[in-house]
Amino acid sequence: QVQLVESGGDSVQAGGSLRLSCRVSGSTSSIILMGWYRQAPGKQRELVADLNDGGSTKYADFAKGRFTIFRDNYKMVYLQMNRLETEDTAVYYCKAIFRFRGDFEESWGQGTQVIVSS
Q: Which residues pair with 11 in a beta bridge?
């Protein structure tokens, strides 16, 4: 199994930057994909960016050019967010997809709040 704990959420002004961290523990060698998602009030949870075990990344259109996902041997996964906008206000979640008993499972963190004010 895989356990995830996010940190780094804060209140910032528009135009500022934040770096979110996701601490990964458990069977980290079984992870095939790590991702950051977000959920704003009254909205569905959406993908921000993900990173597979081959090192390939995928970004939502709103994240391209402003956000960067990167990892440290899967023990820590980060989301660097620059030029933040008020629309980026949300709870940000870390997600892992991993192999388990011949199948694939997913694990989520508890989330970290990001508030961007104008």
A: 115
Give me the DSSP letters along 66-112: TEEEEEETTTEEEEEE-S--GGG-EEEEEEEEEEETTEEEEEE---E
According to DSSP, residue 27 is labeled S
Q: CA-CA distance, 56 to 85, in Å (whole number)? A: 26
The 8-class DSSP code of residue 43 comes to S
pLDDT digit string (tens) for 9-30?
A: 999 999 999 999 999 999 888 9
Distance CA 48, CA 40 (A): 12
> Each residue of 68-90: pLDDT tens digit?
999 987 699 999 999 999 999 99
From CA 14, how far away is CA 114, in angstroms rounded?
Answer: 11
Interatomic CA distance for residues 16 and 80, integer angstroms:
11
